[in-house]
């Protein structure tokens, strides 16, 4: 995730790639086929994930996770705008779109209508 977030230019492409990978039986082995399916250059992501730079990005994510208040009790923990609570977490696991729409402060998105 850390290398995808760092190297894939748009949030939409990041979500598409992660969705593709997580929808497969063995997500750890799907970067190449999912990258090709989406027309993304997957090679830099693979190189990053096996590098000290990738480890550093992952470490930074861990530091951010450890700093959450209240402390996390469940993985994955979903944060919106860097915040979370137990109610939001339970709701996000069953209806993430609704949680995102409720948290979003910009103009109403068509997916939230």
UniProtKB/TrEMBL annotation:
What are this entry's molecular-function GO terms? oxidoreductase activity, acting on a sulfur group of donors, disulfide as acceptor
- Major location, coarse class? secreted
Q: Which UniProt keywords apply?
A: Glycoprotein, Secreted, Signal
What GO cellular component is one of the record's annotations? extracellular region
Its annotated compartments are: Secreted
Family assignment from sequence similarity:
Belongs to the GILT family.
Q: What is this protein called?
A: Uncharacterized protein
Give the species: Petrolisthes cinctipes
Give the organism's phylogenetic lineage. Eukaryota, Metazoa, Ecdysozoa, Arthropoda, Crustacea
